[in-house]
Amino acid sequence: MAENRAFKAYVSDGIESLKLVARLSWQRNLTAWFYVPIGIIIILLACFGVNSLIGLSSVSFPASVACLIVLFFGLMICDMIIGDRKTRALVNIIDIPAGWALRYINIFFTPSFVLLPLSPSISGVEVGKIIAVFLIGFFVVVAITAWLVRVLQLITGSSKRAMTERAEEMGREDDAIPLSQVSSSRQDFQVTLPSGMTTPSLTSGTSTPGIREDIANDLIAPRRTQDPSRIRGTGGPPETDFSVQDSRPPSPPQQTPLPLTRPQRWAAFINRNFDRLTYLILFLFVGLPIYYATGYAMPAQLTFNVLAYFTALALPPKWRQFLHPVLVSSAITVLGIWILSLMRGESLDQVLGSYKTGTDYLDLWHGRKNLSIPGAGDVFGSVLDASIVALALPMFSYRQELRRHFFAIVIPNVAISIGSLFGYPVLCYAIGISSTRSLAFAGRSLTLALATPATKNLGGDVNTNAALAIMSGIMGVLVGQRILEWLRIPEGQSDNLAFQIGRIVK
Predict the structure, then answer these.
(1) Is the C or the N end of the chain the one with fewer CB within 10 Å?
(2) Distance from CA of residue 293 to its chain's centroid?
(3) Bridge partner residues of 216 (DSSP)
(4) pLDDT computed for residue 251 by the predictor
(5) Please, what sign has the CA dihedral across residues 12, 18, 19, 24?
(6) What's the whole-number average pLDDT of the chain?
């Protein structure tokens, strides 16, 4: 009887916690699991339309980058015509899917590393040469770019004053936002305690996007009561200065709120890990049954890849400085899907072949025949186009900096791109790197969206090029600021210079 009562109590508390989560976080989950997918589809439809228009000409250009340019200048025109306030309201709407796509852009890069085992065999000596060229070239390019930008700064007169003006503009923009707009954009997940007090939630921004939205995603236990000796009027030391008398009545002593109940604790855990639990359920009860029953691996591989990325994000911040989530999640994904494939008697090459079959949304919507079923890598690659389009929002946000430092950004950008195109392949081939991998270095200074088609047109190795482009971004985050310090860039100019170099060297 006691066991039955305990079991019923656990079931009752579980149902109560689920009701609590559903009642207090339904808006967040509705946005994350309904509005965001619809917005992503709309962005991809726009890319599909632009791709169809580009296909009418003989020019090869990524539709996602074209949409990025169109969206950026479209927002600029809207800002001039309808004003800043209405434009920011439009940006907040676009940011629902775009903010999500930018927040998770790292996971869409993982297929490039997951597929590295499919690259042609390479000797250890050649790997060492590639790493050496990459590292030396990275530091040389950053140094050249830093000093070139610095010289152009001095010539054009752009300096720390530009960043100060930007800070003042940001402050004016924040002051212009009505208080009701800010408060209405927050969806706080709170639990009313028996004592009538509420527990404020922590914000993580892992599900619902928004430039000015911070979505509460956690329940926290109440803070401990204050030390009575530090509370005036409740037994603390008497006041010794009577020159200023406080007419306000003494505040009542603070009381320790009652602890969270078991359903409230469970609701806090579920809400804090809602995305992880959702993908875990999909992996165990949807992906694996489909994979082992039909052989279609996409649901299992995609959900496992997402879980691997969440695992990589759970590493301590100090570790993530060196163990980048893209690299860690890619390694976990390769190992995991290989183990899953061994249970079906498949080799690593076979399972990676099903991970990315080369069929993206453009192929499907164009109605091309004899297509393979898309894999997890194809899904990530498709959504990556939405992330590239979404880059128009931070560009619009920093439009004043782009205008002020136009020459300091464009001139080094063009110079480094031309140097990479004609310098890297010759140098790599001369020291014994294969021709296809040497040509992959030609797009070293391009963003991945442009580097991929450029490398294909040159006949280079796309996987090598993708790894180089992504590793460049990772290196910039890890050591970019330190390189500026080693170059003895003036401290007042380092942040301003890093802003510009970040748009030149990925």
Answers:
(1) N
(2) 34
(3) 203
(4) 65
(5) positive
(6) 78
